[in-house]
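Minutes, methods subgroup
Present: GH (chair), OT, SY

1. OT presented the first of two proteins processed in the latest run. Sequence and structure tokens recorded below as shown on screen.
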Amino acid sequence: MQSYLTSNTPETLRKYREDELKILRGDGMGELQAWDRVYDYVLYNDLGTNRPILGNSTEFPYPRRGRTGRKLIKKDPSYESQMFVLNLNIYVPRDEKFSQLKFSDFLANSMKGLGQIVHPELRAIFDKTPNEFDCFEDVHYLYEGYQGRANQPVNSHSLSSCCCFSLEFVKEIFRSDGAHPLKFPKPGVIQADEVSWRSDEEFGREMLAGVNPVAICLLQNFPPTSTLDPTLYGNHTSSITKEHIEKNLNGLTVDEVLEKRKLFILDHHDHLISYLSRINITGTKTYATRTILLLQEDGTLKPLAIELSLPHPDGEIYGVENQVYTPAQEGVQGSIWQLAKAYAVVNDSGVHQLISHWLYTHAVIEPFIIATNRQLSVLHPIYKLLQPHYRDTMNINALARQILICVDGFIERCVFTGKFSMELSAKIYKGWNFIEQALPESLLKRGVAVPDPSKPHGLRILIEDYPFAVDGLEIWSAIHSWVLDYCSFYYPRDDLIQDDTELQSWWEDIITQGHGDLKDKPWWPKMQTLSELTQSCTTIIWISSALHAAVNFGQYPYAGYLPNRPTTSRRFMPKIGTHEYEELPKNPDLVFLQTINSQLNTLLVISLIENLSKHSTDEVFLGQREYPELWTKDATPLEAFKRFGEKLVNIENRIVEMNNEEQWKNRTGPVKIPYTLLCPYPLSYDPLGLTGRGIPNSVSI
């Protein structure tokens, strides 16, 4: 199809172009039907009446979602009615619906996960010790290749109180022939061996090459400080002292490692501490955490101290009570250190699911999809550039609102933030900045890179062996080059951008409507120059493709084994004199397992993330198009797109080479999982599934 800027549209097509956009915008009225193609904005008011509405609020700002037109609740018309949880036919514009093949994959994977929950052999091990694992052997029995210790009749009654789906419904699925789903695949983190995940080196490595590699920051001041208002929250300066960490600084002082920019921090203190008083009166018992790490000469990160914080018992105005733990390998102190790391990972798991994954990819991109369809004709070159990066996103987001992030959904049941999950994500959205979603800007903001014109991407990464950043900059640069080639073809002069009425309406719609709660922020690009257009489109594509791939498709390899990535904690750190503390020298593994996710909670988490970590069989990956020779008639963009694909293949080959080079210890680590999350394509001989590699064009799962 030929591309036309708004002003260049042939006169015979102009009215059709305008009329179609009117249809796509709709009139904002009425219930939408399956055949409709209406793109409109609405608040997050469909998650449940006993949760705050998100959006159009200074307290709970949020990106807009797509309007469904479902009826409002009579008792409280500010909320949209919810659908029965197994009704997956929630409205999205028909052009955004899953293909039949994609829907079939999604349904099959969902039913497989539900079936695994009632697998007779798995239920037997649960019935032996209800709600708890006795030992790591019981955890391993969940996976293929392990022989269990139990062989008892199945009694699945306890599941009914835990699962948001009908147990009888799940049983009926597998009733006819007596067949049962297989056990779960063995996650990568325990494939090479079953203990390396517990090492300090692996704990640090996963901040650089694991499922949430976007949170670690340079520590620039010691001790760590807080941004919380002291008049409201008291003193939140860290209690970690030089004495805590200097014994592990390899002979250096704190001042020396600060000057050399060798200290890093995983800081989940400020955004969690104000919620802990409410979270910890539920079944959760957890802390806000700060973790300090040293960058060593071999490129690995060595944890130095973990601080666990609770609100002061006399009230938030009095600050916090802190406990500081330092590395130990043996005896009770070694067990205590393992628990401290687990609490830090619980924080990181919740932030990963709610912020890095849901908010910063799924939620923030939906307004761009809506605005693109409302304001840019299918004839517009920017529509053609971005449309592949929107595929299936509105559909998967609608299903997430129906199953995952709603009241009593999987997130509330399985993540430590519970019923405060979406409210917390709204608080963090206040600080979202579109400019800082560009990978170079993100690395600079976190202090893990500094400007350096002599380097290929104009940046020097302070942690040279940082797989996400190293591979990510290659992918970012390839996307940017492709987008620049494409946009400069259609906009050789800046005045063409300024005079393009559809393009300007599109950008205004994104700012004032889709992300309307942040419309007054000064950082929004003005969309007046080729540079602003290129950077903005590159950022949209980066979020939709590579960033989402980096925080999603590694979930099962790392978090499919819950001891490595627990999502909740049920007990506080054992104190001297308590039964739990006395148990530590006798059975430290039991104390550890009784602190993190319970059995049934573990099953729910594993079944969910196995589904989320898979590619569908009709996936389209970065550098590919569904109709590669038909999407444009312009030869120059087609040639540029071909170069883009070739560049991605070269990047992938280099990633594989680096994974095999021994000097890069963080690319495989003690658990021997090569970092392939930013390899653009899955292995040709590996069926699309739990490949741990491949960058889909869009947020499609």
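2. SY then presented the second protein from the same run.
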Amino acid sequence: MPFLGSFLSEEQFQCSICLDIFDNPVSTPCGHSFCMACIGHYWQGVKLCQCPLCKENFKKKPELHVNRTLREITEQFKQMKGDPGACGGNEWEGLQSSRMDERPLKQRQLSGDLLVEMKRRFLKPFHAKGECLNDSHTLVIERNDCESTQPQELVRSVSLRRYTLSGAANARKVPRCSKHHHKLELFCKSDGEFVCSECGETDHQSHQIISAEKEWLNSKTQIAITETQIQEMIEQRLSKVEEIKCSLTEIKVAAERETQGSIRVFGALLRSIERSQTELLEVIEMCRRSVEHQAEGMLRELDLEVTELRKRSAALAKLAKIDDCISGLRSYSDLNSPLPEKNWAGVSVKCDLETKAIYSSACQLLEHFREELQKLPEICLSTLTNQSPVKPQPKVKKIQDYAVDVILDPSTAHSRIILSDDKKKVWCGEKHQHVSNNPERFSRVVCALGQEGFTGGRHYWEVEVGDKTDWDLGVVSHSINKKGKITLSPSNGCWILSLRDKTSYAFRTEPSTPLPLSLKPQKIGVFVDYEKGQVSFYNVEANMHIYTFTDSFSEAIYPFFSPCTNKSGKNDGPLTITPVLVIH
């Protein structure tokens, strides 16, 4: 029913991994539910599957199926959330009044119609007190004013012969009391069992006793009401079936429309690309041929000049060997013609394929189709939304939307802790520093806290851990022991994720909860939901959920940062609080 939506909240339909409303919810064997994509991504590449919430291990990876009931409830919740005024005030008042009219009759109360029917079916006349004229038989008709009848009066009334709409009551075989051997004609509402008249006077004297037949009549009335409610539920579910079938039909039409649109767009894109490719190849070929033709002309001209120069060189060499000056001068005058004056030094063959314009045209074409492809899903989605009864849902916040600016508090830092000037980096130094011994400073644990604590709401921040071999991150309560040895566990007000020896990830409980991670995170996201008592850790770069611990907070909690000791330079890298990239 629409008015039931007021009793539901968004948190009841959120996946504890992505903190979004369920999308194709599935349930693990331990009973917890997650989005199918979230739990599949969480289990991807791991050897041992375990529940992200209770950490129950499964020897074999469970075969998960969509929880259809939860998905239907989630979809109904989305619809109610999108249209909260589905049931107006007048309709609710009418529904209440109709329910009031359908309330069952009170105990020991018969409806007026039933009384009229009993009078019609009995043939003998009645006197004023409702007794038959035949003294051996008495009809007992109990009305609303009989509610105060005592057990003795009931015994006296049922001792006489009674009639029902189907005939004499004593005509049927009535079970007898095993103790007194009287007929079980009374019903004790206090104990919920059938009794005889003598049991009513002895063992059930102070109990609420009613005639068994009257109780059965009241039960029949309640049965009729229940049947009416069942029929209403059947009608509601049949209506929902038709609604879902209509939605499936509309989705099928929208899918066909989008398929046709995508085929059209991609077909035009492929044809345009093929046409551009053909044009590009033609231009390249034409340019190549033009350059070849030009080069061939140059080569022919050069060959002619080389041949002519070689002939003249041979003739001059032969002339130089003549001793007769007269014949030599005559021959020299014939060979003394001007040499070719063309300067070939600046001549070259350049390859300008003139493809720049084609490439530019292709880029414009691709940009045009990119815009078309971006419009295509919006058009199809708009068409589907306009036709479907399912209304678009408001945007659900992601954990990045709860990002806070965490700054380290120098007054809490251990004497070996070094902070950057902007109080965003923390690492462990080689020696102890001269610092004041205030009550908030840690004396044994190499760590520091954030300046601002949380007493409610949701908060998220990210810490770059890099290639450090050891570190601790999380939140701690304000009353944590700062002057002695600390056991990092939820029972001591510490909710901490740790790394030891480069590969051993664990959540600090007693004993620690090992976390087998296939991907080594370089940046850790920490999310706190104070009201839910949840502390979650994420691999930011891989967009993977690591672990969520649920507890209850009773005081302010503070971000906790421990770079651990530097191990002679092997773990000297800092923990860096980085800005959160909010993706919409």
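Chair's summary of item 2: The first helix runs from residue 36 to 42.
Next meeting: continue with the remaining queue.
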